[in-house]
Structure formats: structure tokens, C-alpha cells
Write a structure and sequence with these properties.
The chain is an alpha/beta fold. It has 15 helices and 21 strands. Strands 4, 14, 15, 16, 17, 18, 19, 20 and 21 form a nine-stranded mixed beta sheet that branches. It has an eight-stranded parallel barrel with strand order 5-6-7-8-9-11-12-13, surrounded by five helices. The protein starts with 38 loop residues before the first strand and ends in a 5-residue tail after the last helix.
Amino acid sequence: MRAHEAGILHAEGSGAAPQWLPYPRDVMELLPQLYAKGVSRDEEGVVTVAGVPVTDIAREFGTAAYVVDEDDFRARARAFQEDFTRPFVAVCGGADVYYAGKAFLCTAVARWVLEEGLSLDVCSGGELAVARRAGFPGERIALHGNNKSIPELRAALEHGVGRIVVDSLVEIERVAEVARELGVVAPVMVRVTVGVEAHTHEFIATAHEDQKFGFSLASGAAMEAVEAVLGQESLTLLGLHSHIGSQIFDVSGFEIAARRLVGLHVEVARRHGVHLPEMDLGGGYGIAYTSEHDPMTPAHLGADMAAVLDRELKQLDDLADELAGDQLGDDPVATAAPRPRISIEPGRAIAGPSTFTLYEIGTVKRVQVGPQAERMYVSVDGGMSDNVRTALYGADYSCTLASRRSDAEPAVTRVVGRHCESGDIVVMDEYLPADVEPGDLIAVPGTGAYCRSMASQYNHTPRPPVIAVRDGHARVIVRRETIEDILALDVDE
């Protein structure tokens, strides 16, 4: 494809569908890997969620709106809590699942997570406040972030959070100081940059060397951080933490990360006589946004990762054998080399597939993009203010006509937003029926993670509501923002 000075969207031949997007045998088919379990079509072709037609949702709550299948969300949380963790019992006594609140968090979701037996990962004072409002016990909360403020640290320690993941030497001093001030001992984990290049977008790959998160393993900074924590009486070191990125579909990157993390764990035991009780491998498990994605189930993922950990943790077993052979008597490191308890942090894999965004079409425009190529531009009543991921990461999404049946031929379509940016694209490439028109509803699946949580007020556009549906009943769990809300922040001198 020839380059174009205005960007790839204007390049010759760009009107054709991409190779990964197959011509649909049925343009109205709902691919099961893209939608929540409770999503289907009725006899009129209308998409329903847990028995509620989207036409009713649009009529009662308006569009754009995020629509979440509550039972699906809960089932995905349970699958990680039960199916994923089961293989770890024989490997290291079990595993803990921390729902990553950054994917999407509100009071109702925090309560769902708590009720399904998961712990919660937060990375700001605001997310911690939501957790506290939901009644989440402090010992089941982890606090992340590369620049936590003193008020955030104080609030976390006052609530008794179970772990603070430290990210810099400055922060280690800061946490220790706040803990001394409050008269507590702060439980911390050291975030280690293990040098793994996750196969994902560079903005969501988090374990390579040249980025803001964590302590480099290769440079020795990680061991320096461990020693800094061990030197503080107001801190207790729970273990090591690693996160290699997001939207990852295999365990190869985790295998390398685990090997390096366990190696550091062993080195800490050798050098300091300390066996760290925990190890966190982060999250980042991918979901299906389009027909080209094929994510693993939590059961499959858990079995594969447990097997990886079992192999890598043999480093600790070897250490125990070595120390026992040395007969070092009362040396604490010689008494045992217990395997650390593992924890993970899935967010996207729980929240993402449970939700779709419901839009109403406002305009349809057919644009000639090549000598024999035409693209149908469908504009909806939302866009990059409610889903910035396409513009930010080049993320791919799918969509479907949701409010009626159509027998029209499929047409190559680009779904775009209402904002004043040419990059305001919701769905880059998809087939929709050629007869879609203003007033039709479309559903974009996989928007439960990083859409509402990253939403903005661009062009002074109020953010959409979140509608939870269960057992034939729809209710608001995050209300629609209003113009009055936006104006309330505007100080008129």
C-alpha cells in the first residue's frame, strides 16, 4: 500500500476490508466469543441482554450507553476465582485473584467482585475511595501506582490495605515515613521490570526496560529496592511483583517473567536469609474484540501458568536441598524454602466481554476511497469520548446492527464518532448491512474494560451511563453525566 502524506486512512486501496476480516456468511450473526452469555437476538432481530431488548434500554436510558450483563461479569469473576486457581493448589498451595479496578470500577462492581470472592487492585485514591464505599475490606486490597501521593498512602494505610506495590526508591522512603507517622508496619511488594517484551501495543507493554514502571532486574535496581525495604523497620516485604503488559494471548511471556522473578526470589533468600511469602504475576490476559482473536479460558490459562510456575519454582526446591545438605543449623534460610503463594490481576478479561456499548446511528455517508472501492461511514452518538482506545492504541472492535433484522448485503463500514477529530473512530473495519440508516441502533462488544474508565468530556460531551442487566431487569449503576455536571465545574469569575 502506497504511503499518503495525510496518513494511512487515505492510502491507496484502503477502502478494501483488511485480510483478517472475513466476508460474513451472515452479517447479523452474533459471534459468541465477542458477546456476554446473556446476549442474543429475538424473532425480530433485536439484540436482547438477559431478556431485555436493547430498544427498551435505548428508550428508557438513552444512547450512548454501556450495557453490562451482570451474570456474565460474575461468571467470569468466578471462573478466575475457581477454575484458574484450582491447578495452583498442588503447585504452591493456591492462588489469589485481584480484580484490576483500573479496567472498570464503580461501587456496584466492587461489591460484585467482593461477593464472588476476589480481592481488588486499585491504583489511585479515587479507586480506593470507591472500594471503601463498597465496604471492601482493607486486607483484600492492593494499591498500585508509580507516583502515589502522601494522602493516598495515608488513606491506604489507615484502611489497612493488604499490600502496597512500590515502584521507586523515593516511594519506599515515602511509604516508610507515612507508616512511621501512623504507627503501623506497611506490607509492600517490589515491582520488578523483568525485561520481557510482551507482544502488544508499546503503550500497554509494561515489562521492557525503557518505561516508567518498576525496578529493573538487569541493572540491579530490583535487588537494591529489596534491600531498601528490608532496611526499613516500618515496612515488611511480602514479595515480588511483575506485570508484562495487556491483551496477551499466550503464556510464553509469563514463562520468561516467572523464571526471572523466581531467580530474584532465590537470590534474596541466599543473600538475606529471607523467604518471601508471595509473588504476583500481574494480569493482561487478552479478550476477543474481533473475529481474529481467540483467547484462552481461565481454566486453560490457569493450567498452563501453573505448569510454568511448577517448573520455575523448582529453583526454590533446589535451594532447599542445597541448604539441607550444607547442614547450616540455625541459619533461617536453611530451615525451609517454601514456595510463595501466587496472585494475579485480571481486569479486562472479566469486565471487557461482559459489556457492549449501545449507540444510535445519526448519519450514513458512502465515500469513494479508490477507483473501485467505497466505504460506508456510519456516525454514532458517541465516539472517542466514550471509547478512546481505537484512537489511542489503534484497537480493533466489532459491531452489529442491534435494533432490527436486515437481509441486505454486507457493506464495508467504518463506525465513527461525533467529535471534531478525523481519528475519532470507534470501529475501524466491519461489515454491516448495506441498508443501515439513521435511527438504527448498533452494539459494539468488548467495551467493559478501559472505555468508561478512560472516558472524557471532549467537546463538552457528557459521559454515558452504565446500565446493568440481570434477570430481565435493567438498572443504572453509573448515571449519565449531564451538561449541568460539566458546567458545575466551570468557575465563572
